[in-house]
């Protein structure tokens, strides 16, 4: 099975990353949090985006995946080999602007004991299939990812380009489309509700 999958997806990354507690090189403990794009961030890739920040370190920078930009495709549209049959209905999302030629898989589930969102990021197809048998696990495929150089995300946060919040278990049951940004933001506070419901250009309202 490995050789078949390797032949069809030579660009597929094979890696697994789980949520880890912050360490001394993480002065801002953002790993595991959601980044919601501020309405002023009109970049095409990050417009109204919800990013799961899977890695964050002052030494190596940050890595995340945009959760709510579906491509409209499923894995079966892109990978025809029978080895991918268990994943053919998995939705494909645009994970970010970096390495958009790569298709990767990720699994997300809720740890009820620790009340934390857990994940395995950029895993192989075989691992994705194995994770899919875990009750309550969400499998997604991503094209590209979101990355920041050391200090870059911190600068963007100081410019108020992002709104940070903790994920909850409702995230796994929500539609991961562009409405996810609105649904999360509107429940943060009355102020954020106004932001979420404001028209793209207030002067046109």
From TrEMBL:
Source organism phylogeny: Bacteria, Pseudomonadati, Verrucomicrobiota, Verrucomicrobiia, Verrucomicrobiales
InterPro entries linked: AlgH-like
Pfam families, A to Z: DUF179
Organism, scientific name: Luteolibacter ambystomatis
Gene Ontology CC terms, in alphabetical order: cytosol
Name this polypeptide is given: YqgE/AlgH family protein
SUPFAM superfamilies listed in its UniProt record: VC0467-like (SSF143456)
Family: Belongs to the UPF0301 (AlgH) family.
């Amino acid at each position: 099975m490995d050789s078949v999958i390797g032949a069809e997806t030579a660009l597929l990354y094979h890696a697994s990353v789980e949520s880890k507690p912050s360490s001394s090189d993480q002065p801002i403990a953002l790993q595991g949090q959601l980044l919601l794009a501020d309405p002023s961030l009109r970049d095409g890739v990050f417009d109204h985006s919800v990013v799961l920040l899977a890695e964050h370190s002052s030494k190596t920078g940050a890595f995340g995946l945009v959760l709510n930009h579906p491509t409209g495709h499923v894995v079966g549209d892109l990978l025809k080999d029978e080895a991918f049959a268990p994943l053919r209905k998995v939705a494909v999302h645009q994970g970010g602007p970096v390495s958009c030629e790569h298709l990767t898989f990720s699994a997300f589930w809720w740890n009820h004991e620790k009340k934390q969102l857990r994940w395995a990021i950029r895993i192989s197809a075989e691992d994705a299939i194995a994770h899919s048998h875990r009750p309550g696990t969400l499998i997604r495929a991503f094209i590209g990812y979101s990355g920041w150089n050391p200090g870059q995300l911190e600068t963007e946060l100081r410019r108020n380009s992002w709104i940070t919040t903790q994920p909850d278990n409702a995230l796994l049951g929500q539609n991961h489309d562009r409405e996810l940004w609105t649904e999360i933001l509107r429940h943060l506070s009355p102020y954020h509700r106004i932001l979420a419901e404001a028209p793209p250009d207030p002067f046109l309202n």
